[in-house]
Amino acid sequence: MQPQRPWSGQGFYGRHERWLQHLSEGEVAVVVPREVLVDWTPKDATREARIIGLDEFEDLFRTFRHTAWRLETRRRYASDEETDTYRQFTETGAAEWDPDEPYCELIRSQTAQGKRVERVRIVDQPPTTGQLYLLDNARRNSALGEDIRNLHRSEADRLQLPGEDYWLFDSRLVARLRFDDDDQLVDVEVITEPSEVVRYSVVRDAAWHHAVPYEEFAAELGE
Predict the structure, then answer these.
(1) What angle do CA 121, 202, 205 make, to 5 degrees?
(2) pTM, two decimal places
(3) DSSP 3-state assignment of 83?
(4) How far is Cα 14 from Cα 17, in angstroms, rounded to an integer?
(5) Is the distance from CB of 23 to CB of 72 less than 8 angstroms?
(6) Are 120 and 162 in contact (CB under 8 A)?
């Protein structure tokens, strides 16, 4: 009787034959348990939620090394509506943005070091007031070095993008923003489990590929 190759038929070999055919003589395939792969990220082997407050969340913008990427999916952010700039925007259609706020100084210092800060904002048809406000806000944040793009919600639905609102730092850590029923940000869930980080990274790649620069998007809306 001829010995069978390991994981034959519809098992491991059948599913991975196109990769295994490149093994050299004397090399063997090794199955690496999922838990071992956590070395490239913080040591979370399972998706156990770690909730952080807004102060610790703010520190993530000081400590990221390469990239900070945001997906904004909500129709409104209650905290925006409490600002003077939102009042100005609803009254006049434009806001006077302060380029020297602490957030601005922080992001400006980070992008000056060559770090990337990027966003994709999902916009309804027609846009909500809050979404138009953020489109106006993009003028200021772009001047800080951010790259901001927009995507129609119909396109996001076609791409099956999730409704989650999150930041992805260095493709290693996800900060998922959690809101209450009044659209107020209450806390942030930190996710470092590798397969989950990969999932959010795939969403980023799809959203970024199809989104358009905010200037082009605003021109299409006639803003």
Answers:
(1) 50
(2) 0.78
(3) coil
(4) 6
(5) no
(6) no
For 112-124, what is each residue's pLDDT tens digit?
999 999 999 999 9
Give the integer Cα–Cα distance in Å for 68 and 116. 6
How far from 199 is each of 92, 163, 192, CA to CA, in Å? 41, 14, 11
Tokens describing residue 203: 């969403």
| pLDDT digit string, tens, across residues 47-84 | 567 999 999 999 999 999 999 999 999 999 999 999 99
Per DSSP, the three-state class of 163 is coil
Distance between terminal CA atoms of the chain? 76
* Mean pLDDT over the full length of the chain: 86
Q: What CA–CA distance (Å, rounded) separates 40 from 170?
A: 12
Does the N-terminal peptide bond of residue 126 adopt cis geometry, omega within 30 degrees of 0? yes
Q: Is the pLDDT of residue 25 over 70?
A: no
pLDDT at 184: 96
Tokens 């869930």 sit at which residue?
Answer: 189
